[in-house]
Input
Amino acid sequence: MSNIKREFDRRKFIKGCLLGGVGLGILPTLSKMHEVLGSTEKLAEYVPEIRSYGMGINVKACIGCGKCVNACEQENNVPKDPMYYRTWVERYTLLLSGETIVESPFGGSRGFTDTHQESKILKSFFVPKLCNHCKNAPCVQVCPVGATFTTSEGVVLVDKDYCIGCSYCLQACPYGARFMNPITHTADKCTFCYHRLSRGLLPACVEVCPTKARIFGDTKLRSSQLTRFFRQNEIQVLKGGLNTDPQVFYARLDGEVR
Amino acid sequence: MPGQVKRLLIFVVIICVLFVVSRVLLVPEGFGKYGHYRATAIDTIIALPINYAGHIVCNDCHDDIAETKDASYHQGVNCESCHGPSNDHVQSLEEDEIILPSAPRDRNQCSICHAYSPAKATGFPQIDVVTHNPVKPCISCHDPHAPDPPSVIGGCIACHRGITRTKALSAHSNIECNECHTTQDEHMVNPRAFRPDKPRSRDLCGKCHAKGATSETFTKKVDMTEHGVGYLCWQCHFPHHPEAN
Output
């Protein structure tokens, strides 16, 4: 008799556990459902248009004046000391000897001085670089607290009030586009000048570029300067093999560029 | 219900309550609203101040300059590219004291883009800053809002390229050839028969270099009554490239 009772109790206990487990699983799902259903109006006010921002860079047009680097510094108060850049310009010099020299003194902000004998140069060109705002951003994936995120427009941002400064994202970024801000001690990077975009302005670097080497726009629009840029040029991205799906597109990029 | 089950249930309930309470306390406001991040972070970033006003605002008032510029080679160069961040200027328009944006007038500003570099694209207008009229500010020949090149080089430089280049490097770069040389028109046709003359008196140099002359303070002044009496200036000095000291 006592045996049967004990067995019954055990069965009841297991059943109870299962039910409880299912209940625990359902509760958060229900609350999520409620959130999703309740927040439709708020979502609408946040994203009136579904956009997908991207930048095109015409390598041949860049003259290495460094105005973009200076404008970025002034617009976003990028700390100057020791050397931090949200965008920078690299000069590639391919020598006849087969050597490739990549330089970016002061991020290109003070221009470039000729350091190589012209007769020894095969070719030379400038490559502006910045955060690629990847669709599959490695930095977003590794952030342990959700301080780095991709907005619905495809802009990768850092929540500096929530970042714990662990630097995982700095290591994850294959483009070296991030740095630790020495003042806030949090991760910092290009925002595509998100605060300007919301005011209907262009990013500061695009605004000041004198040769229109930087083109900003919506990659999904059928008619925009950016889509025109896509049509007229062979487009490449940096480190495409990493499958990060960058949203910064380069035209006439040399294979030497890493 | 047996005692051990009751105790277990209490334990489960405590864990559930702890989970819910800690979730409410630890998860920040707005987290997960749009994704795995704080929704308020976006508001913070959007609220950041701007420094560059954007060329559209500039064109509202300075439409005359915009019109000139948009018809010129500088049509793609936006105002703040040269004038610097100008949102302060736009904001101050309503106030008593208008903050003016910078208006760079020195050669260094233009040479940021137009100095020669092998890395710049062929066809982009570039100059050798050292030899291209070194003392002159660019704006004395080129209008930055309509920077068409000045008239085709002709006249003296067509033959006297060496002297012109030397003079261009010197402190005398702003002085035209005919200020010192009177040249007959026939010189152009028959140069050896009709030579241009050279200054025959010291007065020409004295206009700037005599003691008490009204020239710039950095221009060297000498007492013409004592200095090198009996000689013309150019018999000792080389006016196309005067001594630096």
Observations:
- Chain B has a mean pLDDT of 87.
- Chain B touches chain A at residues 2, 5, 12, 16, 28, 31-39, 41-42, 44-52, 54-55, 74, 76-78, 80-81, 84-85, 112-113, 115, 117-121, 124 (CB under 8 Å).
- Residues 166 and 174 of chain B are 12 Å apart (CA to CA).
- The longest helix of chain B spans residues 3-26.
